[in-house]
Design a protein that fits this description.
alpha/beta; 5-stranded mixed beta sheet
Length: 573
């Protein structure tokens, strides 16, 4: 009877003692973040397709491609504008190229600001969760005789858990390490989440950050998302129980004014793009289920658990910003993903809010659930790491034989080489994983963030192993350098080549990896070029005139039979 009465009076499920919110060592957290951020930005080639296309627009603005004049308000690549209408990400890459010392590889230089954007995402998510956890409705229940978690210590532990949940999400790894507008959109979405969460605590700072985040999101190719998140988020935060109604209404007015200015900016520069796509019933439902389950893992089960355990506050959710604000961000991004063809890049923007919801599951997890998460994570990531090591060992030594045979079949022509620095980093990361598992299996006092240490550590380990041990293979398989090298070897020395219907990624690849000037067929300068390269799919629909061009070869990308370049030589009379 007493338990029932206690539950009715206290619908808040967070029952947390002070010893459960002890500090996660800052050095360990920073090392985990750096081990996650740096691999993928160091030593990697531009990958197909969006990564290469984005680099092509940046190089075009920096005028790396000969014969091209930059148009900063309408970047062009192969004479085509960006279909996503993004500007700011390409500006950042082009500025990095222009400011970099001479001799630095431009594809490495453009990754510097994008590595910073990923760090901004992590910092903004941490401080966003920290602010939401400080809200009175999110705080744990006070004990009758004291000993409950102190408000700031509790908020810090929740923020640590939110950051670990973000790092653990499987969908974050690849897309967050590409130099594409998607990463810029993620960073500005996280900054907007931070600013709205802190509106009631650090009002001026929050408004200043919002004044950067909203136009940043608009200029990164997501104006409609920016307006929905900004306007809706302002209303969410205005409905919380703060004392000064006048200040709340003033904040809403300021944010709506910012949204209006952003809408005018998007309209003036022609940044609106509507990408609604019809759905195909059951087939799309299966794709959506697979995408959501794996892309958002393991944060989505924890977020669902949060909604279940905090369900008594959902009836007045707008008065509980630690639930309402992440739910609004999550709803907007999920609906956007569904309506725009189930794009994983649209779903990427859901991760900061989802990580926030996942963090609020931590105070309510039962010991058996926490143990299940640990064991599943331990098995999953240990098997993944072991697989990466076994394949690497097979490529190095030939034993066991089957993995090396599979690599030779899937990536014909790939020659593997040993890298001592990569091996050393991978070995240290693996030893750190073993140490982390031993620590987690030991007897330690409970801490809120303990259940997410292994998921975040495992995701970091596997990503780091892929970007060290497998990086040459991934560059060969996902890059365009092997294809361009084969075509260049066939053409030999030449000043220029004609192009016909190359895709944007192919055009960027030949502009960067090859020594040739690319001249579009039909242009006045085309007659001076003795060679022609064309996408094989375009040639199948409309081949060059047989009286003028002789087909020399069709060169397939080594790891993709569906992509090939047809090489023609001009027939001289």
């Amino acid at each position: 009877m007493h338990a029932i009465f206690f539950f009715v009076i206290h619908p808040n499920p967070a029952i947390v003692a002070q010893h459960a919110v002890r500090r996660l060592p800052r050095l360990a957290l920073w090392l985990c973040c750096l081990a996650y951020v740096l691999p993928g930005f160091i030593g990697r080639d531009p990958w197909k397709r969006e990564d290469m296309v984005s680099f092509g627009f940046m190089a075009s603005l920096a005028e790396l491609f000969s014969g091209h004049t930059a148009n900063w308000l309408k970047p062009l690549l192969m004479g085509q504008a960006d279909p996503g209408a993004a500007l700011l990400p390409y500006w950042l890459g082009a500025w990095a190229i222009q400011l970099a010392p001479a001799g630095m590889p431009p594809d490495a230089v453009v990754r510097i600001p994008f590595a910073g954007l990923l760090m901004v995402t992590m910092v903004a998510t941490w401080f966003g969760v920290y602010a939401l956890a400080r809200n009175p409705s999110a705080q744990p229940i006070a004990f009758a005789f004291g000993g409950e978690a102190k408000p700031l210590d509790y908020a810090r532990a929740m923020a640590d858990g939110g950051l670990l949940a973000l790092i653990a999400c499987l969908g974050l790894a690849r897309l967050a390490h590409e130099t594409t507008p998607a990463l810029a959109q993620l960073s500005f979405t996280a900054a907007l989440f931070f600013s709205l969460a802190n509106l009631a605590i650090y009002r001026r700072t929050a408004l200043a950050v919002m004044a950067l985040a909203l136009p940043g999101l608009v200029l990164s190719g997501a104006p409609s998302t920016a307006l929905m998140l900004g306007a809706g988020g302002a209303l969410v935060m205005a409905l919380q129980n703060r004392n000064d109604l006048r200040v709340r209404m003033l904040d809403v007015g300021l944010i709506l004014l910012m949204c209006l200015a952003c809408a005018l900016l998007a309209d003036t520069w022609g940044l609106w793009r509507w990408r609604l796509q019809p759905h195909q019933g059951l087939q799309d439902f299966r794709r959506m289920a697979n995408l959501f389950v794996w892309f958002l893992w393991p944060a989505w089960p924890l977020a669902a658990w949060t909604l279940w355990r905090w369900r008594w506050q959902l009836s007045q959710v707008w008065q509980h910003p630690h639930l309402a604000l992440p739910l609004w961000f999550l709803a907007v991004t999920l609906v956007s993903t569904v309506l725009t063809g189930l794009s994983d890049r649209a779903l990427l923007l859901a991760l900061p809010a989802l990580a926030s919801l996942a963090a609020f599951a931590l105070p309510t997890l039962e010991r058996s659930v926490s143990a299940l998460v640990d064991w599943f994570t331990l098995v999953f990531f240990s098997v993944c790491a072991l697989t990466i090591w076994v394949v690497w060992l097979s490529m190095q030594t030939g034993w066991p034989a089957q993995p090396a045979a599979n690599v030779a079949r899937l990536a014909p022509g790939f020659a593997f080489s040993f890298s001592a620095p990569a091996f050393a980093v991978a070995a240290l990361a693996s030893l750190a994983w073993i140490g982390l598992v031993r620590w987690r299996a030991g007897r330690h006092r409970a801490a809120l963030w303990k259940s997410l240490v292994l998921p975040a550590g495992g995701a970091t380990l596997c990503w780091l192993l892929l970007m060290t041990l497998w990086l040459p293979l991934l560059n060969f398989g996902r890059g365009y350098a092997p294809l361009v090298s084969q075509v260049s070897g066939l053409i030999g020395p030449a000043d220029c080549v004609n192009t016909q219907a190359l895709t944007l990624s192919q055009g960027a690849a030949f502009g960067f990896h090859s020594p040739y000037r690319l001249i579009a067929m039909g242009s006045p300068k085309a007659a001076a070029c003795p060679w022609l390269i064309a996408d094989h799919l375009a040639v199948a629909q409309q081949a060059p005139p047989a009286a003028q061009w002789l087909e020399r070869a069709t060169v397939f990308r080594p790891t993709d039979d569906g992509e090939a370049i047809v090489v023609y030589e001009r027939i001289h009379p």
